[in-house]
Amino acid sequence: MPNTHPGMSVMPTVWRPQEIGEAYRMKQSLGETAVYAAGGTLLRTQWEAGTAVLPAHLIDLSAVPMLAGYALEPSELVIGACCPLAALRKDPLVQTAFPLLAEAVRNIAAPSIRNLATLGGNVVSRIGDSLPALLADEAELIWLGKNGMQAEPLEDWLAASGSEQAGRVLVQIRVQHGTESVNGAGTMNDIRSAPLLKVDSDRSASVRIYHKVGRREAFTPSVGSLAISAGMEHAAGKLKEVRIAAGGGQTIPKRLERTERLLERHADPLGEDCAAEVHRSAMDEFEPVGDLFASRGYRKMTVANLLVAELWRLRERFA
Amino acid sequence: MALNRETSGGRWRIRPDGPAKVTGALTYLTDMSMSGMLHGRVLRSSHPYARIKSIDTSEAEALEGVHAVLTWRDVPGLNGYGIAVQDQPVLCRDYVRYVGDAVATVAADTPELADYALSLIEVDYDALAPVDDPEAALADGAPKLHPHGNVLHRAGYERGNIADGFEGCAHIVEETYITPRQMHAYMETEGGLFVPEPDGRLTVYAPTQHGLMDRLQLSRILDRPQASIRIVSSPIGGSFGGKDELNIQPYGALLALHTGRPVKIHNSRWESVRAGLKRHPMKIRMKTGIDADGRIMAHDVNIIADTGPYATLGAEVLNFAVEHVIGPYRYEHLYVSGVSVHTNNGMSGEFRGFGGNQAIFALEGQMDRLAYKAGIDPWEFRQRNRRRAEDPGPFGHPIAQTNGAEQVWRTLAESALYARRERLAYAASAPSSPPWIRKGIGAAFVMHGAGLGFGIPDPAGGRLRLAADGKIEALFGYEEFGQGLIATLELMLIEEFGFAPDDFRIVIGDTDRVPDSGSTTASRATSMMWQSLQRMRDPFRSALLKAAAAQLDRPAEELAIGEGGVREKSGEKRLLLAYQNLAAGSSEEIAVETNFIFPASDTKRIGAHLLYTYAAVAVEAEVNTLTGRVRVTDQFHAVAAGPVMNPQGYLGQIEGGSSMALGYALTEEAIMDEGRYVTRNFDTYLIPTIADSRGGFEVVPIEELPEGDPHGPRGVGEIGSVGLAPAIAEAVFQAVGTRISRLPIDPSELQKPTDALRKAVKDR
């Protein structure tokens, strides 16, 4: 009794390479009929929704040692592309040293999914909620391609059109250590609950803030996500090294560079006039994709409002 | 006193079906399988509206491993179903009228093969422009979806003279309220196992809220006697009204009988969304006028309900909405008209609240707007206009009188949550709260009917017997779909009879064994179990004691029913005869049965209720004006439903109902675009998570009933789900001054641009 017929969709053949070179060679030989899979959580939803076809071959990357886990090295955090989101979320060292990433990961999907879903998968989706955090931290991607290992700034990769070099595979995500800082994220509902920044001395501080706004309180697609990283000289009331990245939904996240410069150059970046300019600038610069659930205008306004609100909180802190 | 674990003492019991459900050990009906079974699949329409030119199944039939490919030609009996009107085709012949319409059904060796077979069925459609808006469906020249046109049902009510009523009004409020298509979102999608038995009968293991109704409907479709069909229908992984109507049963039954083999069908979530029932989207226009004292002079209401392509209970839902847009208030002049309209959108039907959710959102919205216009506190406004003891029901019909309206009004007025309302203006500027967070408190007042209402068959009944193994069996035709009915019945048997939990066994959800208790719906099951037990208690006790007296050779007057068996009535209440021994020693079966009709109002008004539950709900909500998002931070529910039969179940019903209402108010909408679902899964259709359900939650039950009330506990299955949305809408108004007339609340309506933020910052 045959269980299959020609023309009937069948479950893919699953390949399980044991090292990264093997994975890459498999993809080269199987070509378009094969798809890399890590946690598979996003692929599965795409297959179910019919937005992607079930491939003939799946190259399961979960057994490749080089892609597993993460390491906190003296100058940087090196994260294997197959590191599950849950692992990053739970580590107090990551939380302390990389608060943007920890907070971003904390808000992605639900516990059972975070155990399977990987940071690499979130990155290569091009719309993952970790991306604004990684952009603000100026993360670097390490790929294995035809010329061996290559490094590429995340920002450049996101800005490129998306035509991927045939079969290259994401190996690592690297984030440089900045000044140690304290998580500045929070619900925005209680002014007391969110430690805003780490005061490094009585002269300077570093600011790290991440926000995700969804359609409900948890396990939700984002309608807006925002990451802010900046240094602050509070005696002078100036901001330096400002990095602002925004995304959400189907929007490919981007740095808001004009707004960054505005804040860096402003004589009184926490003042009322600057807040209005920043709001206008963010509204102008951020180009989100709207959908039936949240319009483009709403998404713009949400990100711009959160940004200005954070400036207000900084001012409250230093007034 | 608040109802919770602490205040319930020993009556707070672990429900008997709880541990297996929580641990995942329970085998639901859709978990069942059999060796040699086939897998059934249904081919659903490719179009929201189309004429079928031809159906060619030859390629699918030729596949090896495919055992049946059935179309309308293979339906032996009535090719139609529906609880009230059988107008929904089992398998479509000439037209498809929504994307869930079934055209063919297949049984194959594997699910994948069945899917593949569906893809080989050639249906030649002549696609037609879908009628996707009820108002367009009513317009002249609109395509007629049925020979009788596009109107399923009209209902209305009139008292006084509405035109005169508005003359001389001090204030008039006109508003149009729009409510969403809400999904039941039960965890277990529709499915079941269908087994042809060696004796020629058919056993159906498939969830439903009324096994005997499924049996009747299947007997018509299959053209075979009801007695040849057995429906096993519990346990159920959630229903909320969504599984009361037939869903996959006709296909499983047809395929099993056609192939002579067991067939399993289990909808994917995608198919469940596509084919299943939803809550009726309604557009409710209201014009309401008050005099200078704030008394309602005139209330003019028009309801348009999108009922989708077929009837199911669309007419009954509209009747209920008409009753509940009148609700617990007094009016000088009243005019209500409503129409339930066929469209090519998804099927609308029964859903917890049954038309009350939409009606009460609109009605309470009017009360809040009128109070604001008149400068009267909104709760005081309700006090001025609410019904008084001995007033007739909404249709001027006789009802079972209680003091519920007054009791819940007062309880809420005295609640700590509502008392905070006055202080909130100051709290908003407290330094702990950033300027973009605005808080408000709102409340709603609810009167909700229980039972199916006058004019609709509403049978009730149950049976008690002493089984041969010595267990007392309580048999009811009810279904357990999570509401806690088994636990409630258990507590009733312990408290009414003095049995120990081990003395009895509860039998439900099997048409071969249970009497007709009617449908498990309309907040009626607890009420009816209690009434059944009241009728059976004395006869059953007497029968047990009479048999025991004969065996023990002692007068029955000296004996009593108790834990473990028959005991001495006085003194140490010594155990004299275990139930096991009583059963063994009795030559005749000891059993009593009761059959009656759920009490209905003495009226001619179809759907009018006799029994009502009253509730008052207050919520505190906060609006984040940066994002426009609303969070409910505290809830208070006062519920007057007579005595609490099962504390955990009661609290669970109010909490669960409120959680559904939270989704209704804030996130849930099954969006359709030209007759096709846009939200096809739970990644876009968002129900509340536990993170959305934080904050305080207090339930105060009011148990007191008038002296001599014969009806006992009223239902609480729906009341928690109807009042929350309007209370949230008012809390939002109090917080940011924006009136909500459409659900779910759109955050972009509440978002304030930077200027507002700057001003807020300046004002601090």
Supply the CATH class of the largest domain in chain B.
Alpha Beta
Percentage beta strand of chain B: 15-25%
Give a count of the beta strands of chain A, DSSP E runs of length 2 or more: 13
The CATH H-level homologous superfamily of the largest domain in chain A: CO dehydrogenase flavoprotein, C-terminal domain
Query: Widest sheet of chain B: strand order?
Result: 3-5-1-12-9-10-11
Poorly predicted segments of chain B: none
CATH fold-level topology of the largest domain in chain A? Enolase-like, domain 1
- Sketch the major β-sheet of chain A: 5 strands, antiparallel
The CA-CA distance between the termini of chain B, in Å, is 40 Å
Pfam family, one (chain B): MoCoBD_2
GO molecular function, one term (chain B): iron ion binding
Protein name (chain B): Xanthine dehydrogenase D subunit
InterPro entries (chain B): Ald_Oxase/Xan_DH_a/b, Ald_Oxase/Xan_DH_a/b_sf, Ald_Oxase/xanthine_DH-like, AldOxase/xan_DH_MoCoBD1, AldOxase/xan_DH_MoCoBD2, AldOxase/xan_DH_Mopterin-bd_sf, Xanthine_dehydrogenase_dsu
